[in-house]
Amino acid sequence: MTTYTEKNIKQFPFTNLIHSTPQIYHDHTFWEITIILTGQARNVMRDAPKNILSRGDVIVLRPNDCHYIRPLSKSQEYTHRDIYISIEKFKNACNTLDSFLYKELESAKNPPTFHLDEMELLNLNNHFNYFLTSNKKNANMDSFHTALICYLLGLYIKNNSFSNRNMPSWLVTFLSELHKPEVFTQRISEIIKLTHYSHSYICSQFKYYMQKTLNDYLLELRMNYAASLLSSPNISVFEVAMQLGYTAPTNFIAAFKKYFNISPKQWQTNEKHKI
Predict the structure, then answer these.
(1) Where are the alpha helices (DSSP H) in 42-167?
(2) Which of 78, 108, 226, 227 is spaced 20 to 30 A from 244 at the CA atom?
(3) Is CATH 1.10.3210.10 the classification given to domain 169-271?
(4) 166 or 83: which carries more pLDDT confidence?
(5) Above 50 in pLDDT, residue 275?
(6) What is the pLDDT of residues 95-118, one digit of tens each?
(7) How do the domains of the chain map onto residue ranges?
(8) 67-71 and 113-115: which strand pairing?
């Protein structure tokens, strides 16, 4: 097993992009946050479940986590971003947000994971690209890096703000199912059938625990999924509309434009110049 120290990341001390590079088992003397940008990859750890990670998925790796990340197969490609943070800086960033956060992340049974929506992913990726233009550390770059780490940790808190222990078990299960594309692209009447509760009860409980309506939550899932699909130049707007369950593409285009303030076609064109 290899241990990576700060000497190993001297060329890119803040962040680096990794393209389909098979890794060997290793750990670190620092914290590492990994974000999947394109494709899918597998995070493998000894004595832990294998994580299959897709675009927007984030995994927080502790200094002593022994792992490797590899493509799902030799023929598949992926890109992930590694973000490097010293133990002291990470602890300070956690304490800025929540005095219990560092202990929560450090003592978790497995590396904590969460998901970025499409806008969060694009914004963060653009900001972190700034560090690849220079490999020289200075106070301004370090401060900007710390601010981005705090923002990332804030997104982790947002993703975990309604913990499983506070939610009824049926809602935890329902949310887990709801994040599957084959589920959230269905009509709401079909989605409700996943539970044994009435439409009105589900909607009221969902609003209470999630602080947003089920309809708004579904719209968010669908639009971010659409944006992810449109990152490929080989799919048409019509095909995306059909995959999301829209019978009329014009309704999908109107919903997408209202949500993102840009048409699906314009989004797809812009994506060609990203990542």
Answers:
(1) 87-97, 101-107, 118-129, 139-159
(2) 78
(3) no
(4) 83
(5) no
(6) 999 888 999 999 988 899 999 988
(7) 2-159, 169-271
(8) unpaired
